[in-house]
């Protein structure tokens, strides 16, 4: 959607060869800071890191009630949070090349789908997070890794800031990030995760789920388990270790004040640019080999595994169907099929599906259609979610939801919330799932959930100083 209306903004560029996104984040003052990154190891991604602080507005949703906070003012709206979110996106288009130059940063939890689909009674919620939480920013710092250039950006989203105020804010940010501060590296105490579900119980869940598969209720269902640890250390130190040990296309650190979300996700849930909407289904995996020869053998083995390929085809079809609900007829197409992408601990089969949004549809409509991804629910999706609700007996929370940004012009890019950790009330939470089909082995699936969690659970096993 192109909007000709414009708003006031100011920007300033700095040489970035002596700064890093991590240093900028640590020096930037303010509350509710965020850092969005993408590893340079992944082609087509990794050019920009975006850092911001001090949101001017927040949208918090739980159930059918939405809270909109602006400064000290709070307004409760008896409306679906996503519908309120649509109203908060200005649609303003600025002549700026960055993918995000102001708007909302945050997440949608898996359970937000309950506003659109009846999947059963709401189970208990031991973590107690909002189902939707987005923070709106108009000041940010963009680090361009390609040109080693930093852009400071201040936008007048509300019509309340003069050019002088915007320039003053740029000067403040410049001073903060270029002034040396002796910020001591924080100690990261050992973080030892324990599964909340014992092996025997999880294996029985798998057997019970397979009975529904064999009866023809579903073709596949993704059952998950949560791992929990005491956490008293510095969450940003944990994130720094994670980004070094497991570089990924979507890396994020979001400080919501009373809790923190961090992660390194390999998978996009949904991305829109103008009228183009893109989904990247991932299904099929193997651990990385210890040698190049072993790695190549595992790659060949993965691409020859008919069970993995069948699961991937099914999830590609799900993505095509999801996009078909919001795209013009005949525009949904497969633009990449069964490529193997490799990460620190694991390799995946990845495809790409694209379409053109239908008239009257927005990126948020595409997000609603895509959530949750078939890779974390199953097929058929609604019946799989009903069974997940029956077996797991707890709200999934952020796991299997979406995390990322919605630009002020309506473009969005949200990662699937996997390989993601929540820190809240001195506890850390990680959740992973296994895709079950008719011949799944319960013990193998249990260990797969633990293996998928390793990128996070192994980060904090030892005492270390954040460097």
What are the main properties of this structure?
single chain, 467 residues, alpha+beta, Anthranilate synthase, 12-stranded antiparallel β-sheet, 10 helices, lyase, metal-binding, Anthranilate synthase component 1, EC 4.1.3.27, Anth_synth_I_N
Provide structural commentary:
The protein is α+β, with helices and mostly antiparallel strands and 467 residues long. It has one domain (9-465): Anthranilate synthase, CATH 3.60.120. 27% of the residues lie in helices and 33% in strands. It is built from 10 helices and 26 strands. It has helices at residues 21-27, 81-88, 163-178, 199-214, 235-245, 292-303, 306-324, 363-370, 381-392, 442-457; strands spanning 9-15, 34-37, 48-52, 57-62, 65-70, 73-77, 103-108, 132-137, 139-144, 149-155, 187-188, 194-195, 220-230, 250-255, 259-265, 268-273, 276-279, 282-287, 333-342, 346-356, 378-379, 402-407, 412-416, 420-424, 427-436, 464-465. Strands 1, 2, 3, 9, 10, 12, 13, 14, 15, 21, 24 and 25 form a 12-stranded antiparallel sheet that branches. Strands 4, 5, 6, 7, 8, 16, 17, 18, 19, 20, 22 and 23 form a 12-stranded antiparallel sheet that branches. A hairpin with a 2-residue loop joins strand 4 (57-62) and strand 5 (65-70). Helix 4 crosses helix 10 (442-457). The longest helix has 19 residues, at 306-324.
């Amino acid at each position: 959607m192109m909007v000709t209306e414009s708003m006031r903004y100011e920007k300033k560029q700095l040489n970035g060869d002596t700064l890093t996104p991590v240093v900028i984040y640590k020096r930037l003052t303010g509350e509710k800071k965020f850092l969005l990154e993408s590893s340079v190891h992944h082609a087509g991604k990794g050019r920009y890191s975006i850092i911001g602080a001090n949101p001017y507005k927040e949208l918090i949703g739980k159930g059918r009630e939405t809270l909109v906070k602006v400064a000290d003012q709070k307004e409760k709206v008896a409306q679906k949070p996503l519908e309120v979110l649509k109203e908060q996106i200005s649609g303003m288009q600025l002549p700026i090349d960055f993918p995000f130059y102001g708007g909302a940063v945050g997440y949608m939890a898996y359970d937000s789908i309950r506003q659109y689909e009846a999947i059963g009674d709401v189970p208990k919620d031991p973590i107690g997070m909002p189902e939707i939480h987005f923070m709106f920013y108009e000041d940010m710092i963009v680090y361009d890794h390609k040109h080693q250039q930093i852009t400071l950006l201040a936008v007048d989203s509300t019509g309340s800031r003069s050019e002088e105020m915007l320039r003053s804010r740029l000067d403040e940010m410049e001073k903060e990030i270029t002034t040396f501060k002796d910020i001591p590296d924080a100690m990261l105490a050992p973080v030892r995760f324990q599964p909340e579900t014992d092996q025997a119980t999880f294996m029985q869940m798998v057997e019970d789920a397979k009975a529904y598969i064999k009866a023809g209720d579903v073709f596949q269902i993704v059952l998950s388990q949560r791992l929990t640890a005491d956490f008293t250390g510095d969450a940003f130190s944990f994130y720094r270790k994670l980004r070094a040990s497991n570089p990924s296309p979507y890396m994020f650190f979001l400080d919501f004040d009373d809790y923190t979300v961090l992660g390194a996700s390999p998978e996009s849930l949904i991305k829109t640019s103008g009228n183009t909407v893109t989904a990247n289904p991932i299904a099929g995996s193997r651990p990385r080999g210890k040698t190049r020869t072993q790695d190549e053998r595992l790659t060949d083995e993965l691409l020859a595994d008919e069970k993995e390929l069948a699961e991937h085809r099914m999830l590609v079809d799900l993505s095509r169907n999801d996009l078909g609900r919001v795209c013009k007829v005949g525009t949904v197409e497969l633009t990449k099929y069964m490529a193997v992408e490799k990460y620190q601990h694991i390799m995946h089969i990845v495809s790409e599906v694209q379409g053109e949004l239908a008239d009257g549809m927005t990126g948020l409509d595409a997000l609603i259609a895509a959530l949750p991804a078939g890779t974390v629910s199953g097929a058929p999706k609604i019946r799989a979610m009903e069974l997940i609700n029956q077996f797991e007996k707890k709200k999934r929370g952020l796991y299997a939801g979406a995390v990322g940004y919605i630009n002020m012009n309506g473009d969005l890019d949200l990662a699937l919330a996997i390989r993601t950790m929540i820190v809240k009330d001195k506890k850390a939470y990680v959740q992973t799932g296994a895709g079950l089909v008719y011949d799944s082995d319960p013990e193998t699936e249990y260990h797969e959930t633990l293996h998928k969690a390793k990128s996070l659970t192994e980060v904090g096993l030892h005492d270390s100083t954040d460097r």
